TrEMBL record:
Domain YlxR: residue ranges: 22-97
Pfam families linked to this entry: Ribosomal_L7Ae, YlxR
Name used for this protein in its record: Predicted nucleic-acid-binding protein implicated in transcription termination
CDD domains in the cross-refs: YlxR
Biased composition (Basic and acidic residues): 1-12
C-alpha cells in the first residue's frame, strides 16, 4: 500500500460529496456510504467520527477496520485528506469500536421496546419455528455448546434459508438491553430494525472479529 508521500493525492480526495458511494482514503476501495466510516474535521482541527453521516464539513471516508484506522493515523492520511494538520484522538480505533457497540445496542433496544426482539433460548426457538425470526444474536462469550445450538437452529429452521447469526456482543452487553445481568440468545423479527442492526454489526466486525480468547468469534454467520 503506497504511503501518502508516494502520491500527489490520496484516493478519493477529489470525490464530490454526492452520489451513493465513497472511496476509502487508505485502501482506495469504493463502497456504498453505509459500508464505510465517515469522519469530519471540527473547527478546532480535531478529527471527529460521524457515524450518522450528518455532521457538516467534507467527509473523510475509511473502510471499517481497526487496521485501516490505525494506518490512517500512523501515516497521517487524515491530515493529507484535510490538506492541513489535524489532531487525532488517542486510541481512535478503540473509540470507534465503543461507538459502534453503543449504536448496535441502542438499535437492539429500539427493537425490544417495539416488541420486535426477545431473549432466552426457548423464546428464540419459538420465534424461529414460527417463522418470525429474521436475525439471531448469540453472546460471543457463551459456551461452545450454546453457540453450536443456536447455529444449528438458524441453519435448520424449515428450509427457507439460513437466518443470519451475529456473534459480536458479550452476554453482559446483550443483557443490558433486556434488564438482565446477561443474555445469551436474542432474536429480532423481520423489518428495518433487523436490517439496520445487520449493517451496523458489519461495521463493528472490522473492530471485534476474533476477540474471544483463543476461539475467534464469528461476525455475521449464515452457515
Amino acid at each position: 500500500m503506497p504511503g501518502p508521500e508516494a502520491e500527489s493525492k490520496l484516493p478519493g480526495e477529489e470525490d464530490e460529496e454526492t452520489g451513493p458511494n465513497r472511496r476509502c482514503i487508505v485502501t482506495g476501495v469504493v463502497r456504498p456510504k453505509a459500508e464505510l466510516l465517515r469522519f469530519v474535521v471540527a473547527p478546532d482541527d480535531s478529527v471527529v467520527p460521524d457515524p450518522n453521516h450528518r455532521l457538516p464539513g467534507r467527509g473523510i471516508w475509511l473502510s471499517a477496520g481497526r487496521d485501516v484506522v490505525n494506518t490512517a493515523v500512523a501515516k497521517r492520511f487524515f491530515s493529507r485528506a484535510a490538506r492541513r494538520p489535524v489532531t487525532v484522538p488517542d486510541d481512535l480505533a478503540g473509540r470507534i469500536e465503543a461507538l459502534l457497540v453503543r449504536r448496535c445496542l441502542d438499535g437492539l433496544g429500539l427493537a425490544r421496546r417495539a416488541g420486535r426482539a426477545v431473549c432466552g433460548f426457548e423464546k428464540v426457538c419459538a420465534e424461529v419455528r414460527a417463522g418470525r425470526a429474521a436475525l439471531i444474536l448469540a453472546a460471543r462469550d457463551a459456551s461452545r455448546d450454546g453457540r453450536e445450538k443456536v447455529r444449528a437452529l438458524a441453519a435448520g429452521h424449515g428450509g427457507t434459508g439460513c437466518i443470519p447469526v451475529i456473534e459480536l456482543f458479550d452476554g453482559t452487553e446483550l443483557g443490558s438491553v433486556f434488564g438482565r445481568d446477561t443474555a445469551v440468545h436474542v432474536c429480532l423479527s423481520p423489518g428495518k430494525l433487523a436490517s439496520r442492526l445487520v449493517g451496523e454489526a458489519a461495521l463493528l466486525a472490522g473492530f471485534r472479529q476474533g476477540d474471544v480468547g483463543e476461539e475467534p468469534a464469528d461476525t455475521v454467520r449464515r452457515d
